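Re: the 584-residue chain
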Amino acid sequence: MRWVESDDVRLALFEQGDPAAPTVLLIHGYPDTHRVWDEVAGLLEDRFHVVRYDVRGAGLSGAPAETAGYDYDHLAADLTAVLDAVGKPGVHLVGHDWGSIQGWRLIGRPGIEERILSFTSLGGPHPGQAAHFLRNGRRSKVAGQLMRSWYIGAFQIPALPETVLRATLPRLARRFGAPARPGHPADTLVKDGVNGLGLYRANLSPSTGASDGSSEVAPGGSSGDGPVSRIPVQLVESTKDPFVSPALFDSTDLWASRLWHRRVHAGHWPQRSHPRVLARMIAEFAEHVEGAEPSRELRRDGPGERGPFDDRLVVVTGAGSGIGRATARAFAAHGAEVICSDIDLDAARRTAEGIAERGGTAHALRVDVGDTTAMEEFARLVKERHGVPDIVVNNAGVVVAGAFLDHSVEDWRHTLDVNLWGVIHGCRLFAAQMVERGEGGHIVNIASVASFLPTRLLPAYSVSKSAVKSLSDCLRAELAGRGIGVTAICPGFVSTPIARNTVYVGELAKETEEPAGKALAARGYPPERVAAHILRAVHRNLPVVPVNAEGKLGYALSRISPAAVRGMARLTGAGEISRLTNKH
């Protein structure tokens, strides 16, 4: 630690890492100290010179005697003094909460702007942008944000907030923050909370969230302290922040000419709850600004108009034919990079080559989804070569048709290995990667109308698909808090090679083989229409999607009259098998 003199206060400055490396300057919010960044700083110090300081009124730093000593001019003087002490021509600024608010207001100031290489904003909007939202945003969303930020008005009341904070702040910090550890919350928490009221009173109006004329700023214009940002800005939105609604950030691109908008599925303190995710985001952005190639996530969330699947990485199993091939093509046509996997490598290659011929990007890999070791190696290779997928479609499947007593143990084992265990492997391996990355994702599991319309001709298949739907429901509930959606797609009768690839066992099933093939050919429901349902389900994060008329009618009937469904299962005969199977 060393001391930095700034006007009327003395600031406590902390540094770690190689001073010759690019510098990352971390500014904490209210009512924190520099210690809130401990985990992130430790993860960055091997690549960066990491600088932190206790802002005025917090931690070891001095506090001004008057409320006016917390205004933006004094905060600008503090930042300038720190930049002078660090002695670098440019730094990568990262601000959280009030550190972000002051960062937005200061990065356009002459004397500071030219010394900031990039700015990463967490949990604190530009005050002018917030005021613009409160005036022009949808009424319901504005009301929601005002409910979250009611305390801004309350903090303007003389004396009362000080009394309340002294009594309640330790309990509130435990409620809204990450688990306590040495250094956070700081031992100076109550003092810091009371002192920090000056930030709100000197700078923010309770009605607009802005001051010093920033409530009048127009998008693309300037006010008070200088123009809106011309430097690269990375906005990291915490999707579960109790104080800041996602709607508040909708117009941020009007305040930054080069904006990367990324999301972490965390609360107000992502540097405590998700330090590895946040450190990776900061490092990726700083290194890109320094000249490195952008990561896929930076390309995905970078400046400019982007479709919902542009630069997404999509994994599709069973992509060699049918629904899998159509789905891979559809995602690629909408800008995604696709991993086409299949147990038949040549078929996967044909799908990938067809995508490339249409101007898309795709890669072919062989995998047996029912083989645990093979799936683990497959998931490892995808991450190592291409990164963590944004979307995974567990589509590969097989059908064995025949009466229960005609199914051998091997028939059951093979059906469950591919149809159920293949989905389990795809979910557990790729969901783990998505959770570790911390930026959400989506998993699509191809079930079937047979998951809610059982038939005596497909016992193993129906059991496997019912389990897939149930697994999808369970997983959706578990992963929702991680920003990962899960969808079960339940098609009915689709024109694919399913009939000729079905294994028929026993006399009853053999009687259905020819009628099933004819019925599939006559139905004329193309797999491309199923693929369209899949893309729509991912975009809208739908839980269950019955596809085509028989799928929708069957799903409705299963909910309205289970007895009728059981009766239909007894009556099912030749030719009906194809109506109740999923087509891969």
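The domain at 313-580 is CATH 3.40.50.720 (Rossmann fold).
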